[in-house]
Amino acid sequence: MVQQRVLILGGTGDAASLAESLAQAETGWHVISSLAGRVGNPRLPPGEVRIGGFGGALGLADYLRVQGIAALVDATHPFARRMGWNAAAAAHEAGVPLLRLGRPPWQAGPGDRWTEIDDWDAAVALLRTRPRRVFLALGRQELAPFATLADTSFVIRSVEQPDAGLCFADAQFVLARGPFRLEDERTLLREHRIDCIVCKNSGGEATFAKLLAAREMGIEVIMQRRPPRPVVPEVVDAAGAIAWLRALPA
User: Fold this and answer.
1) Which H helix or E strand runs over 190?
2) The total number of structural domains that make up the chain
């Protein structure tokens, strides 16, 4: 049987889960996973993997045509602003059906003390109002705006070591990759006497425990809202993506 080719724009747990599910389910799809290459030692999903950019929307459209891609799944991080729009433009240009696979955003519940902001400059302005002990749960490429805060003590958690040239007045670095347990998050917040968490509304279960701990402990959260994405068909898990792929014309 000739397999149709599906390109998964990945780098997330959702993308890896879909690639693994397709490999196990024998759905008749040949999987190609694309990773941006921003992490030095990424977890490679099953199936064919390519690493690196495409050269914008036109480059991605050319790749879809040349490789004979029959379906495109955008499973990139919710904050991969440019890639979502490039995927929509490329899919339209190449005439390839596009699906967005993404976890729903977190929603504040009773007891949460969330302040939602659109960019890190707004977060810095909030933190500048008084000395704080802040837990930064961000990627290493997004830390620079916070280095300007001389009166703030930071605990910074990222997958990889931040750039050596980045200088904080008072910071401890924790290198770790989720999922994180609630008990461990409670311990981290308590031992470092954290009074504010800064994070992005990534959604999902892997990093939600810090927000549960913050709710229990009455800790403030400054959370960046998700950027807008193009309107395309969307599912929240691998099962939904597989059902979408199976419904496509052969």
Assistant:
1) helix 182-191
2) 2
Q: What is the chain's alpha carbon radius of gyration, rounded to the nearest angstrom?
A: 20
Tens of pLDDT along 180-196? Answer: 999 999 999 999 999 99
196 bridge partner residues: 134, 220
Verify that 74 and 91 share a domain, yes or no: yes
Q: Assess if residue 109 is contained within a domain.
A: no
Q: Which domain covers residue 181, as residue numbers?
A: 114-224
What would the 3-class secondary structure string for 9-67 be? ECCCHHHHHHHHHHHHHCCCEEEEEEECCCCCCCCCCCCEEEECCCCHHHHHHHHHHHC
Which one has a higher pLDDT value, 154 or 25?
154
Instruction: At 207, list the tokens.
Output: 């990093």
What values do phi and psi take at 137, rounded to 5? Answer: -110, 75
* H helix and E strand count, the chain: 7, 12
